Amino acid sequence: MEIREFRAETDVDGWLEVERTAAAVDAPGVVAGCRAELLGRLRVPAAGTRMLRRVAVRDGRIDGILGIGLPTLDNLDNAEVDLTVRPDARRRGIGTALYQELRRVLRAEGRSRLLAESVRALPDGPPRPDAGTPFATAMGAARAQTEARRVLNTTGLSLDRLAEQVEEYRRAAGADYTLLTWSGATPDDLVAGRAVLSSRFIGEVPLGDIEWEPEKIDVARVREYERSGAARGHRNYHAMVRHEPSGELVAWTELVGYGCRRDTMDQEITLVLPEHRGHRLGLLTKLANLHQAMSDVPELTSVHTWNATENAHMIAINEQLGFRIVDLWDAWQQSV
């Protein structure tokens, strides 16, 4: 077996095959193995992150992949790690070899902490392999937080009914709040407000024991996020609420669609500033954004979202919308 650097000219298909085969077993329904996504990541790295990639090659086939994301603007002690082994090649030392390479790279890069995630079945759900938990534990990582993935089946939703609900919640919020929606790049008059909300997000959501400092997001960084997403074929949908007396943006939610699959989207950030909670602005933005995305992409059949298991308020909102739990995602942290 050989552990070496990823080669863009020869390794794309092998990398994607590992992603696809692992996701089919470990996390059915999750977007993985997307060529446009990987090629976009190679062309335009994510804003504020330097990526390093390694592959494990055995008998001419890529059997394991290692992605190492090194934040460059903040969280300079941290590294975000994705270590995946093909299901039919597990328990042969490939994961351990990649982990040893990971530790070597992190020491060379001056990083002292790694963060990774794994997925497991619900305790009372259909059985599913759990390769991540025993591996992370054996490597000495500690579980820092657990998130639950929930999926919304959109096929039974009515656009007319969604529009009615949006209007009901908009009226209930009152004249002080204005709903704003768009897709693609953030309008120039809103991008500074989006940067403020992005910067506040980490400080407002439960992180469990994860050591991650708030990110300092400015307009330039927002535009970098948008450019990197567009390069990957992402379709982004946003709903925000502006508080008219102050002119501030006080609520925001985002859906992300993928170039290789039009049938599914991921629910990303949802944030309502604490001083404006109690007006159902979270539901208002989520309903409006769902209506916008479904109107634009008739093929959409499911939306996936992840919430910390201790985030009872957001879980209640999502379940009211019809999201149903499917599996658990553990965040693992280790000092190196």
TrEMBL record:
UniProt-recorded Gene Ontology molecular function terms: acyltransferase activity, transferring groups other than amino-acyl groups
Matching Pfam families: Acetyltransf_1
Keywords: Acyltransferase, Transferase
PROSITE patterns: GNAT
Domain of life of the source: Bacteria
Domain N-acetyltransferase: 1-164
Keyword DNA-binding: no
Keyword Cytoplasm assigned: no
Protein name from the UniProt record: GNAT family N-acetyltransferase
Parts forming coiled coils: none
